[in-house]
Design brief:
The chain is α/β, with parallel strands linked by helices. 39% of the residues lie in helices and 16% in strands.
């Protein structure tokens, strides 16, 4: 068996196209332009690249992009004041504070200072609670992207046996809740799970989000299962030259692809969906703020 390759780049491009179409309708029919504000504190190179990419794609789909770049030593009070300003700005519908923050800043305090209706990362405690009780919320982008790909591949995941490897607040826990909300039977596994291999072998759907390179081998995978690899890990690649690295996921792609029915690659799988779903969340937030119909197919 050779698994179907779930192409995240192509899927993300489709989502961005849907977002762009909805933005055009909002502009033409209601004279509204969705606005996304991204706040970056410090000069972390990876965060800078990510923020640039977000800004570029925000503009490409026709939305307003605002970036606030703050010094690494910015006092917490100043950051909170900026968030309060953005909370009350009617032209800003989505607010994202790029993580991680410098150590002197309290991430929980900062995240929970964002208006939950503008929390397009879906990290605010109110959104976590709403998602956990099956109510309308802002949904974390990476799990939302995984769900979209699963729905597109399977049509319905109702009744399927799903295992989420990883229990982080950003991916593992919200992913499990989204699967439950779509009526899958869900197990959350982690580093202390007994007989982890046997637990994974029962699954029709495997979501690997544990942050360990190539942790899941092919002999853990049920024949025909769908494997969604959220991991992004760097390994040394001396064959590419001194100091070079390569990206791998949390599953061993080659051995898993030989058994699975479908699998996402790394890179080019889940990763591109994260920014696409951030844009989708911003449009959703804009529609909710203005009492308009939400975009079909872009929410959980």
């Amino acid at each position: 068996m050779t698994a179907t390759r779930i192409d995240g780049k192509t899927f993300a491009a489709k989502v961005r196209g849907q977002v762009a179409e909805h933005v055009t309708r909002l502009k033409n029919d209601h004279a509204i332009t969705p606005g996304l504000a991204v706040v970056l504190v410090g000069e972390d190179p990876a965060s800078q690249v990510y923020v640039r990419s977000k800004g570029k794609m925000t503009v490409e789909v026709g939305m307003k992009s605002v970036e606030h770049k703050l010094d690494i030593n910015t006092p917490e009070a100043d950051l909170l004041a900026l968030i309060d300003q953005l909370n009350t700005d009617p032209e800003i519908h989505g607010i994202l504070v790029q993580l991680p923050l410098p150590k002197h800043l309290d991430e929980d305090l900062v995240i929970n200072a964002i208006d939950p209706a503008k929390d397009v990362d879906g990290f605010h405690i109110s959104n976590v609670g709403l998602l956990g009780t099956g109510q309308k919320s802002m949904v974390p982008c990476t799990p939302l992207g995984c769900l979209m790909m699963l729905r597109a591949h399977h049509g319905s995941i109702s009744g399927m046996d799903a295992v989420v490897i990883g229990r982080s607040n950003i991916v593992g826990k919200p992913m499990a809740q989204l699967l439950l909300n779509d009526s899958a039977t869900v197990t959350i596994a982690h580093s202390r799970t007994k007989d982890l291999a046997d637990v994974v072998r029962r699954a029709d759907i495997v979501i690997a989000a544990v942050g360990r390179p190539q942790m899941v081998p092919g002999d853990w995978i049920k024949p025909g299962a769908t494997v969604i690899d959220v991991g992004i890990n760097r390994l040394d690649a001396p064959e590419k030259g001194e100091g070079k690295t390569r990206l791998v996921g949390d599953v061993d792609f080659d051995s898993c692809a030989a058994v699975a029915g479908a699998i996402t690659p790394v890179p080019g799988g889940v990763g591109p969906m994260t920014i696409a779903c951030l844009l989708a969340n911003t449009v959703t937030a804009c529609c909710r703020a203005n009492g308009l119909a939400e975009p079909v197919g872009l929410t959980a």
